[in-house]
Amino acid sequence: MWAVFHHSAYPNAALLQLEFDPKLAAAPxxxxxxxxxxxxxAAQDEAHPRALAELGRTFGGAGR
Length: 64
Description:
Layout: H1 2-7, H2 31-59
């Protein structure tokens, strides 16, 4: 909430009046779940430059 309030272009989007409810918080990830999530993010990180290059080729930009 602090980061949204202090660094967002829309600080009013921060829900400052809400109280934390631990029942709504996500359970900690297992090692396997964390590894799967890391692999997913790594794949996204690798695919992003290729997607930008493809957009550049499609729209005639610097990605040619």
